[in-house]
Predict the 3D structure of the following.
Amino acid sequence: MQRIEIGQVSLEIAIEGAGRPLLFLHGGDYFAQNRAFLDRLARRWRVLTPRHPGFGGSERPEAFRSVHDLAYLYLDLIEQQGLGDVVLVGSSFGGWIALEICVRSVERIGRLVLVDSLGVKFGGREERDIADIYALPTAELLRRTFFDPVRAAPDYSKVDDAEAASIARDREATALYGWRPYMHDP
């Protein structure tokens, strides 16, 4: 990973591959679980994978409190890098950010791909139709999140202390950005 400066934000980002730009916005948990998927994408695309501010070891600017802040940051990233016709891929929490980006501007976006996206509420105003990811047992969360939960289950016994701390920070940051309203924007 490298760091680039966008305004007042020092952003951790991996840039791999060549070709049409693909901006991948990761979900709320365990950044490393996307590694094999991203390696395959990089065979065909120029894949930019930022780590959201406040996730892993990255710092969260004090002013960053909502998904809206992340959307504007990534619009600035796209502009700063001179990208156009971007394939924007958002996974889970990253899907919510991708949707917010497109609400604000699609000028440089060529395609939008959502993978198990949060951020969209289909039920009534008072109906809680998005599962509480913090209250569900791990097996149930994996079942609701992945087609093949057995293959997707992370092996936490192989995670060192630094990666465990990173995972905990990811969950904390997801809660900070997405708690009210819970994992959606009206």
User: Anything to note?
Assistant: Helices lie at 35-41, 67-80, 93-104, 138-145, 149-152, 161-178. The chain is about 35% helix and 20% strand. The first strand starts at residue 2 and ends at 6. The chain has one domain: 2-120+132-178.
